[in-house]
Amino acid sequence: MADPQRIHPAQDPEAPHTPTAPLVPRGASKSDRSDPTEQYPPFQRTIPVMHSKPPKKKRSCLCKCFCWTISLLLLLIVIIAIVVAILFLVFKPKLPKYSIDGLRITQLSLGSDDSLSATFDVNITARNPNTKIGIYYEGGSSITVFYTGTQLCEGSLPKFYQGHQNTTVLTVELTGQTQNATGLLTTLQEQRETGSIPLTLKVKQPVRIKLGKLKLMKMKFRATCNLVVDNLDANNTISIKSSSCKFRLKL
């Protein structure tokens, strides 16, 4: 059997031709003015990359401040050193000298309550060897006498001014009372038999130095004197067999 014949409709050549719209792929843009067949890449937004920078200005300011501070401190130290050197060359300071020249005991007795009462009169000589420096002895001083570490009596120096190349002799009364001193008095009596009794005298004295017309700040003068006496009998002549003193000045 023969295949059926297919009939295709004929196209009129004079009929208007309707253009077929081209296919636009996904992701492509279409423009009315351009070629409809032209394809564009998909739009992508560019985000600028921000690079963090170290705070150079702040660090630079800190370094400058630190350098200026160190420079000012060094300059101040140099100025102070120059001033001290000039004062030393001009005034030529020397430490004052002290000596214990005499000791008299008016009381050294044991009470009914085993307390030892002591009264000493100490003769102190203070010498200022400086030619351009004066010394103000301020209040608040203390002089203490010890025997083998036990305090026997204490007192204080009077306030006075010592001029240039001046020698001042002072008599200071020291008083004290030691509790439970029966054993201490027994030791003193045994030590007296040897003819050598060691005593320690400590001095704490606030002073002000006068340079010309300038009065400096208050300083602390300390002295420690080691004495050896022949006896400690009340109302008796006491001989100082040896005496040595050490001095120290603190700001």
TrEMBL record:
Region (Disordered) residue spans: 1-56
InterPro entries linked: LEA_2, NDR1-like
Compartments where located: Membrane
UniProt keywords, alphabetically: Membrane, Transmembrane, Transmembrane helix
Keyword Transmembrane helix: yes
Keyword Membrane (UniProt): yes
Segments forming domain Late embryogenesis abundant protein LEA-2 subgroup: 124-222
Transmembrane segments: 65-91
Membrane topology reported for the UniProt record: Single-pass membrane protein
Database matches in SUPFAM superfamilies: LEA14-like (SSF117070)
Name of the protein: Late embryogenesis abundant protein LEA-2 subgroup domain-containing protein
Species this chain originates from: Vitis vinifera
Lineage: Eukaryota, Viridiplantae, Streptophyta, Embryophyta, Tracheophyta
